[in-house]
Design goal:
- The protein is an alpha+beta fold.
- The protein folds into 2 domains: 267 residues, 3-Layer(aba) Sandwich (Beta-lactamase); 100 residues, no CATH class.
- It is 28% helix and 15% strand.
- Strands 2-1-14-13-12-11-10 form a 7-stranded antiparallel β-sheet, sandwiched between helices.
- A hairpin with a 5-residue loop joins strand 7 and strand 8.
- The radius of gyration is 20 Å and the shape is globular.
């Protein structure tokens, strides 16, 4: 028996009611929305923020970069299973951490195999983040790597925490995928993404650099203080000039634009006008779990200024497709098995549920990631949406 389609009015009412009922006094504003495969049915804001606020997406960027890479696969110019160094020569220099000597110097060795773009897309290439991996923090300090927040290629490093293909570890993999895209096309990632993805979807508020108009609508980032209050961080006054378009973290956007992107995936890779941005078979393959016997694991909050310990749906097996985390069983919120979703460091969350015919996004701008107030409100919003679905 097929699942009845979502009722747009019922979805919109449930989402709006939850957003209004939630206690957002302990958050610096929330923007949230829901889309079906046909249209955005709800876009709302609560607290000192507007629905057109420009947000730092952080790791939500990864799913858009992955989509552009898949378009290059469709073009026949990118082989996901070839060594990624074919397209980005700096990846030929990767080495695997093999421990530390007595004075803390990292001991490195050659990897057993070269990382592929598929492994970069699925976070099985071996790259890590300092704020989720204590050993990589030691490596970064010993090698003098800049902080990844600097947005430079040098900050990515070329040290792997494990041999490619042997375990799932969340890290800078998609920043490297962005560089692979640039190696294939000979153009900056942002230019390729705008032409092939953002413009066809009408995502005019999404970019790697904020111009004057975007800065006028920017939602300030905040830090949660020890007493539970939050402190606004400095807002830039001049347009951004990023040295690199960081494919794993660098985009700014609005929730309205993000819903357009999620809707494209609900539509199997097509725009609202029916224009195919991906081949149907590519879209289907991209949304299947790619990890085999490996599993997504909890993220330890090594740097509590940036992130607390984090795990979505503890006790449920989780994989990773070519875009985001998959849940292999129905989740407590109502998210159906085979759905996928992820988040950004400033507590921006999204999910796509092809079986349920619904996708949603919930966003604020506060550190650390997995802030209990923010994450709890995001999951409550998702739960309210599912309670409004038929069946």
């Amino acid at each position: 028996m097929s699942t009845p389609p979502p009722d747009p009015e019922r979805l919109a009412h449930a989402a709006d009611a939850q957003l209004r009922a939630a206690d957002v006094s302990r958050l610096p504003g929330v923007v949230a929305g829901v889309t079906t495969a046909d249209e955005t049915v709800h876009l709302g804001a609560a607290g000192p923020i507007t629905t057109d606020a420009v947000l730092a997406l952080y790791s939500v960027t990864k799913s858009l970069t992955a989509t552009v890479a898949l378009q290059l696969v469709d073009d026949g110019v990118l082989d996901l299973d070839a060594p990624a160094a074919r397209y980005e020569p700096r990846l030929a220099d990767v080495a695997v951490l093999d421990g530390f000597d007595d004075d803390g110097t990292p001991q490195l060795r050659a990897p057993l195999r070269a990382p592929t773009t598929r492994q970069l897309l699925t976070h099985t290439a071996g790259f890590a983040y300092t704020f989720f991996d204590a050993d990589f923090t030691r490596v970064a300090r010993a090698l003098g790597l800049p902080d990844v927040a600097t947005g430079t290629v040098e900050s990515l490093g070329t040290t792997l925490m494990s041999d490619p293909g042997t375990r799932w570890e969340y890290g800078t993999n998609l920043d490297w995928v962005g560089l692979v895209v640039e190696g294939v096309t000979g153009r900056r990632l942002g230019d390729v993404m705008t032409e092939r993805l953002l413009a066809p979807l009408g995502m005019s508020d999404t970019a790697f650099a904020r111009d004057a108009d975007a800065l006028a609508r920017v939602a300030p980032l905040h830090a949660r203080m020890p007493d539970g209050a939050f402190k606004a961080l400095r807002i830039p006054t001049a347009p951004d000039t990023p040295p690199v378009d960081m494919g794993g973290q660098g985009l700014y956007s609005t929730v309205g634009d993000l819903l357009r992107f999620l809707r494209m995936w609900l539509r199997g890779g097509r725009t609202d006008d029916g224009e195919p941005l991906l081949r149907p078979e590519t879209a289907r393959a991209a949304t299947r779990n790619q990890l085999g016997t490996l599993r997504v694991t909890a993220l330890p909050g090594v740097d509590p200024r940036r992130t607390l310990d984090a795990e979505f749906f503890p006790g449920i097996a989780k994989g990773w497709n070519l875009l985001a985390m998959t849940n292999e069983r129905d989740a407590p919120t109502g998210r159906r098995a085979g759905s996928y979703g992820w988040a950004g460091l400033a507590n921006v969350y999204f999910w796509v549920d092809p079986a349920g015919g619904v996708a949603g996004a919930w966003a604020t701008q506060v550190f650390p990631f997995a802030d209990p107030i923010a994450m709890g409100a995001a999951l409550d919003f998702e739960t309210a949406v599912y309670r409004a679905l038929p069946g």
